[in-house]
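debug: dumping io for the single-chain case to check the tokenizer round-trip. Nothing else runs in this session.
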Amino acid sequence: MVSSIYLKRADGKTLEQFLPGQHLLFGLHLPSNEKIVHRFYSFSDSPEKTYYRISVKKEMPPILNKNLHSGVASTYLTEKLKVGEILEARGPLGNFVCEIKGKEELVLIAGGIGITPLLSIIKALQLQNRDRKVWLFFGVTNSKDHIFKKELEQLKLNTNFQISTFYTNPLKSDRIEKEYDFIGNVDFEVIRRMIQLGEQKFYICGPRKMMNYHINALKVQGISLDKIYTESFSSKSNPIDTVEQSSIETKKILVTFSKSGRIIEWNHSFKNLWELANSNGIEIEVGCLFGDCGTCMTPISAGVVSYNHKTTAVPDEGTCLPCSCKPLTSLEIDS
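debug: decoded output
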């Protein structure tokens, strides 16, 4: 289930212009949660509108464990949000942006809800640079999961925009060359056969496994990394080792924010240092909240951190990514 939400400023002022591919960082005050829940959602429309549009997919429990709850933020936004409610958001943010006036061919690769920032890019191109050649390779499960199908078909009327759709598990009623073009995940060999690779720019958004597959395939073809742009829509919630976590929770840990002149005791209910800072009014600029972009990289003056998951951005020596780590010891950071 995907719902599109249209937003305007509560004070009636003009919205800040965003760049196609960017997102907003929401701080959601949910009735079921004491703490603010932070999520980012990409713009799914072109910047030339008088509103912002985001599109949210309800996060369902894993197939193998139906006892787990659906995503709290996505459930609220898709099922409980009412017209006229006020949401808090920061942005526009993010470096997953496209220079719309450019001339290079664009190859867009999306998995599921990862289509949203790419849809914003496509719509901006239709309005500002219709002659630019754009290829979209889009993977979903089947016709029931084929989000934005009508919008994409309408955009396809531009002869310079070509879509190839992949169904991993088509329904019996799904017709190849009608609802979809290929069976399986988005296959790089299909892309390689269709396009003479060279000077294109590549924008990839979707699950981490899918993105890594295409990045590695492009590197093998000699495509330089400066032509490859990625945005992760993966859920990176792998906990740190349980023994290590147990040992952390027996210690009193103080976090010193040197620029702000604040010393705050670490609370193990927070997922990361950024949440601790944000909940105490200390601003640390972030872009992705997953350790993909490196925007929040912050110097460490003293102490040791532990990462919740492997990050794409590699922190420089003597720094950390507050959006993705917790303190192992008392800590001082330059914020």
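debug: round-trip ok. The domain at 242-333 is CATH 3.10.20.30 (Ubiquitin-like (UB roll)).
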